[in-house]
Amino acid sequence: MISFLLQRDTWQEIFSSIGKNKIRTGLTVVGVLWGIFVYIAMSGAAKGLDNGFERAFESVAKNSLFVFAQSTSKPYGGYKTGRRLSITLSDVETLKKRIAEIDIIAPRIVKGIFGGSPALVVRGQNTGNYAVYGDYPEYTKIATKEIYQGGRYINEKDIEMSRKVCVIGERTQKELFDADENPIGEYIRIDNVYFKVVGIHKFVPGGGFENDSDVFIPFSTFKKLYNTGEKIGFMAIAAYDDADVIQVEKDVKAVLKAIHKVDPTDERAFASFNLGEVFGQIMGFANGLSFLSLIIGIATILAGVVGIGNILLISVKERTKELGVRRALGATPAEVRNLILLESVFLTVISGIVGIVLGAMALSTLNYYTLDTDFPYTNPTVEIQYVVGALFLMVFLGTLIGLIPAQRAVSIKPIEALREE
Questions:
Q1: How high is the pLDDT of residue 14?
Q2: Rounded Cα distance, 113 and 255, in Å
Q3: Under a CB-based contact definition with an 8 Å cutoff, are residues 67 and 234 in contact?
Q4: What is the reported pLDDT for 139?
Q5: Do residues 159 and 262 both lie within one domain?
Q6: For the chain, is the Cβ count within 10 Å smaller at the N or the C terminus?
Q7: For residue 4, what pLDDT is reported?
Q8: Rounded CA gap, 311 and 214, in Å?
């Protein structure tokens, strides 16, 4: 077989056969390469989407949710409809004890969003209105805060001692401080109370309601500054990785309804945003797109390979006399079969390689045009083992489909072939 492959006459025969009808052969090759191109392009696009959302949510725990109180929509236990609810710090402790699937709860409170007026922040002659968050250090275990070198975030000592320290945003720094000035260790006034700047946070899109100008202070300090008592604005909750975050959300609301004497069927009393559920849906969509690309790619490849088989059948019929002469001159059935099979595999491999190259070029172009956009999309690639696997599948199918015209060529009887005109 190896010597057969290395013979010059073998390849002359193959190229001669292919060249007899260039248009027909070209269209068939396009059909095959289109299949692997579609597979690579769609699989790579799905992976790019997957990577994009992974990057967008990399600063937030995947199995997390946010819960906040609203107003009741149903009367219950002697209370009227429209009762305004508030979550408290004691609720947080109760949730920790009752729901074992919860890993971390970070109470938060904020001034300046959800309709409230922002805080007035002053530094020298510069002023600005910014949202101020009261936070616990645990929040950074749910949503990572990237702090510029030389600074830090809120810590436990800040909470225990109700320190007047703050972490400011990038835009807050630019608007309140000079370009060559280091804010760390300097003081700003937040609603007429002096706070020491201990860190500057880098804004990362995808962190919920936050933006690049927010100011973060210890939760305990926020309570005293604005006299909020035990009330919290909302809770950031992270469930364990193996927990069902949708069920955790239901359990949290059920416990809160029981604590605050709310009708169990009242769906408006406590609202939530389940990031874990959203992330799961996005990943499910990306996985579904990958599976769809596999099905479409295989179906298209199969259709193209069948087209190669049809071309070879036509070629065998057109070369009946030539094949008969070969047989009459002593060509064995194996040599004739191998010639047709080799032609089928050659066309399949060439189609596959061209399809892979075009698919890679399409993904590279797509990556280039989405590189500097806000769209959650990055690095669309297909792992090499899947590319090689797709190519081997094409060769396997090309060999199988080539057996049909090869067997047809072997079945030609030399005497009958020589009689044909």
A1: 61
A2: 26
A3: yes
A4: 92
A5: no
A6: C
A7: 46
A8: 68
Per the structure block, which two tokens stand in for 225?
A: 């500054």
91 and 144 both lie in a single domain:
no
How many CA atoms are closer than 13 Å to the CA of 296, on its beta-carbon side?
14
Q: For residues 200 and 188, state if they share a domain.
A: yes
Residue with tokens 């030399």: 414
Q: Are residue 177 and residue 256 in the same domain, yes or no?
A: no
Q: How many CB atoms lie within 10 A of CB 122?
A: 15
Shortest CA distance to 314 belongs to which of 340, 346, 332, 337?
A: 340
Per-residue confidence (pLDDT) for residue 263, from 0 to 100:
95
Judged by DSSP in three states, 351 sits in helix
> How many Å apart are CA 52 and CA 418, to the nearest integer?
65
Round to whole Å and give the CA distance between 409 and 372: 57
Q: Point out the residues of the chain with pLDDT beneath 70.
A: 1-21, 24, 56-59, 115, 204-209, 312, 314-336, 372-376, 409-421
The structure tokens listed for 118 are 């922002």
Domain contains 109: yes
State which H helix or E strand residue 420 sits in: none
Model pLDDT, residue 54? 72
Range of the domain at 151: 104-233
Instruction: Name the residue type at position 161.
Output: M
Q: What does the alpha-carbon distance between residue 152 and residue 185 come to, in Å, rounded to a whole number?
A: 11
Q: What integer pLDDT is reported at residue 375 of this predicted model?
A: 66
> Tokens representing 337?
């079969």
Bridge partners, 111 (sequence order): 132
pLDDT at residue number 102: 94
Residues 16 and 126 in one domain: no
Structural domain includes residue 306: yes
Alpha-carbon distance of 153 to 140, in angstroms, equals 9
CB 209 within 8 A of CB 113: yes
Asked if 139 and 129 count as a contact pair (C-beta separation under 8 A), the reply is: no
Is residue 380 in a domain? yes
150: left (phi over 0), alpha (psi -120 to 50) or beta: left
